[in-house]
């Protein structure tokens, strides 16, 4: 599902803002299709409105996520995350089969975070990866490891996602 249309993929004369907006839209659509509402409901309380598609908008400044009902374009809920979701795009792999992995750098320290889409909550954190900023986290094809750049320390950190630990680092050139 692509929320807002996918025409941006077809043009070769786009500026950076348009590309980023399109990538964010795709990521939100993918997240929305992977998520299920978390409210506890009785059979009598289930309504057609609750079963509609939801778009999840990550708010960096307030470190929360806003859930929007796609059909009527109204905010359904805003939930705290406690982390600023930085970058989810269709150009990177961030899904390990049960969690969405991304990164944050509070107090200029890079950390990996895992979001459970059913709970709409951060359920794992791998902190202490080094000095930020970071620019991307990619889940590797085995879905058990990931790589995240730690630009302030000029390295790539490799993560063990199953155990939520740092597996090793690789020194790079300046500001990877």
N-to-C span: 32 Å
| Alpha-carbon Rg, integer | 17 Å
Shape: globular
Spans with pLDDT under 50 lasting ≥5 residues?
1-49
Number of strands: 10
Mean pLDDT: 78
Instruction: Please count the helical segments.
Output: 1
The CATH class, by name, is Mainly Beta
| CATH architecture descriptor name | Beta Barrel
Total domains: 1
What is the N-to-C order of secondary-structure elements (H for helix, E for strand)? Answer: HEEEEEEEEEE
List the helices and strands and how they pair.
Elements: H1 16-34, E1 54-59, E2 64-69, E3 74-80, E4 100-104, E5 109-116, E6 121-131, E7 137-139, E8 145-150, E9 155-160, E10 165-171
Antiparallel strand pairs: 1-2, 2-3, 4-5, 5-6, 7-8, 8-9, 9-10
Keywords, please?
single chain, 176 residues, mainly beta, Lipocalin, four-stranded antiparallel beta sheet, three-stranded antiparallel beta sheet, 1 helix, 11% helix, 37% strand, globular, disordered N terminus
Q: Explain this structure to me?
A:
With 176 residues, the chain is mainly β. It has a single domain (7-171), classed as Lipocalin (Beta Barrel). Helices cover 11% and strands 37% of the residues. It contains 1 helix and 10 strands. The strands form 3 sheets. Strands 7-8-9-10 form a 4-stranded antiparallel sheet, with no helix packed on it. It has a 3-stranded antiparallel sheet with strand order 1-2-3. Strand 5 and strand 6 (121-131) form a beta hairpin. The longest helix is centred in the N-terminal third of the chain and has 19 residues, at 16-34. Residues 1-49 have low confidence and may be disordered.
């Amino acid at each position: 599902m692509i929320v807002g249309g996918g025409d941006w993929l077809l043009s070769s004369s786009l500026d950076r803002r348009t590309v980023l907006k399109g990538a964010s839209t795709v990521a939100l659509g993918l997240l929305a299709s992977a998520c299920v509402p978390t409210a506890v409901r009785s059979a009598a309380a289930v309504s057609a409105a609750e079963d509609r598609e939801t778009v999840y908008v990550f708010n960096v400044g307030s470190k929360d996520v806003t859930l929007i009902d796609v059909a009527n374009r109204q905010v359904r809920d805003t939930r705290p995350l406690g982390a600023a979701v930085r970058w989810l795009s269709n150009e990177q792999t961030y899904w390990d089969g049960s969690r969405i992995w991304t990164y944050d750098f509070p107090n200029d320290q890079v950390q990996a975070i895992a979001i459970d889409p059913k709970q709409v909550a951060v359920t794992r954190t791998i902190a202490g990866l080094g000095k930020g900023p970071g620019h991307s986290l990619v889940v590797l094809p085995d879905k058990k490891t990931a790589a995240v750049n730690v630009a302030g320390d000029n390295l790539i950190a490799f993560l063990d996602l199953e155990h939520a630990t740092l597996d090793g680092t690789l020194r790079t050139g300046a500001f990877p």
